[in-house]
Specification:
two-stranded antiparallel sheet; alpha+beta; flat
Length: 295
């Protein structure tokens, strides 16, 4: 196991002792590790924090390799993020699924309509999956065709189907694995699959690059949820490895304007108009998705 310590408090003491045992007639020796930390203050959350897991001191044990003499010798934890990216790209349950969505080829003309400009085609494909597909965590599927037939599924499956469709339409699209702010920051050195909890789409159009998440109906084109803006995302590819910057593409703006009159008796009357744009508008639409008509 790899022992990965995070946080800002140091251990007071760490010691390892050996113990012997017997299991079904086989003798073995095991390491017993004891870690101690004293005078730990109470954790207090502060404004503008990401995830509390980024700050609480802890030790995480990640299975690194399985080594059974004469039987199994297997590396479990990838030695680098590049190796993890390549492993995901070649995995039957992830990257290989993108090669099994050629059934979308026949649907592309209907999705893009009369659009001829490449960017307009990408927007049409994105809006198709954002507007006509719904998140449903009860839909468990190992193939993307079922997701397309049902028009619902896990957020990752919806985005994976969109990635496959963009590729079938002739664009260079890949999955990007990231860790949301609430999930915590990525470790700079240890490539742990469990550190990621979100999949979005990265697509190129000439010199331009877009990040798309069709699982959130409130998001405009080339915009990720604020919770996803957590540093960098890992491009899943079996080719040249790269990180993708997760930067905001919209500002957060709220403007209030009013026209008021105070009558002779001191009563105030008038109108107040509130307009929201960028991330402020996105959050408002998400919070009031069911009663947006009333606003």
């Amino acid at each position: 196991y790899k022992k990965i310590m995070t946080g800002y408090l140091a251990l007071t003491n760490a010691e390892t002792t050996k113990k012997s045992g017997n299991y079904q007639g086989s003798n073995f020796t095991m390491n017993v590790q004891r870690y101690l930390m004293k005078n730990v203050p109470a954790f207090q959350e502060e404004p503008y924090m990401t995830s509390r897991t980024d700050y609480i001191s802890k030790i995480k044990f990640e299975l690194s390799r399985i080594d059974i003499p004469g039987s199994i010798n297997k590396q479990v934890m990838p030695p680098s993020y590049a190796a993890l990216s390549r492993k995901l790209a070649e995995s039957e349950s992830f990257g290989e699924k993108l090669k099994k969505a050629r059934f979308m080829k026949n649907e592309i003309p209907q999705i893009v309509g009369e659009a001829t400009d490449p960017k307009e085609k990408i927007i049409k494909i994105y809006e198709h999956f954002r507007d006509y597909f719904s998140v449903d965590y009860d839909v468990l599927s190992e193939n993307l065709k079922k997701i397309n037939d049902l028009k619902k599924g896990f957020p990752q499956d919806i985005n994976m189907l969109m990635i496959a469709t963009l590729n079938e339409a002739g664009f260079d699209a890949h999955a990007v694995r990231l860790s949301t702010k609430s999930h915590g920051k990525l470790h700079p050195s240890y490539a742990m699959k469990s550190s990621f909890n979100k999949t979005v789409c990265h697509v190129k159009n000439g010199e331009e690059e877009y990040l798309l998440d069709a699982s959130n109906k409130s998001l405009p084109f080339n915009t990720l949820n604020k919770n996803c803006l957590n540093g960098k995302g890992m491009l899943v590819t079996d080719g040249n490895f790269k990180w993708v910057d997760l930067n905001p593409t919209k500002k957060s703006k709220k403007m209030s304007t009013g026209n008021f009159v105070i009558d002779d008796e001191g009563y105030l009357s008038g109108k107040l108009n509130v307009s929201r744009s960028g991330y402020n508008g996105i959050e408002f639409r998400s919070q009031h998705a069911k009663d947006i008509v009333d606003y």
